[in-house]
Amino acid sequence: MLHKTKGIVISFIKYKETSIIVKIYTEKFGIQTYIENGVRSSKGKNKIALFQPLTLLDMVVYHDTKKEIHRLSEVKCLYPYNTITVDIKKSSLGIFINEVLNNSLKEHAENIPLFNFLLDSLKFLDQHEDQIENFHLYFLINYCFYLGFGPENARDVVEQLYDHAFPVNDAEAEQIQKMISSDFGTLLNIGKKMRLKLLELLLVYYKIHVENFGDLRSLGVLKEVLE
Hints:
Number of domains: 2
Number of helices: 7
Largest sheet: 5 strands, mixed, barrel
Radius of gyration: 19 Å
């Protein structure tokens, strides 16, 4: 049956000579896998751009609950990025966010609030310049609420990290509390050292709650480009 849905590309792999198998987080069906034929041929080379990670899509898809791999009927760009693809800081943040999503999006079910949060977050990154260096911290704090382990306050985070041998000092706890209680993008008056420490603590918090979350390969680049 044909369905209209929006989607966020997570990853793709090459399949046979000219095709790809692409993983997309959809508004209507959660994380799904699709096969797209001919996009790596000379006739389809421009279409491959639609399947780069984090591309926002409008789609018409064939969906059969009995199948693990589905097909696309129509696909077009929902929102073309203006800055993420050309700004080194934003592109590095995008790669990081993509890897977080790849390691944590597992449900094959509709979750419109989560989908809208991801869509709005990516548009925010593309459209804003202020406080971009802290975007990933706010993203991680907000995202975990949609995954079901959002903390009521900083103490929740501190106690869980302490139980896993990761102590949090008062200054770090204060910044975590500020992010929990503030709107996305609110000014954080912190330096690079504190930013890296908060990122480390939040990633440990994710590893506690998300099975097989693992280490992120993009972390090294992110640390280099963010001041």
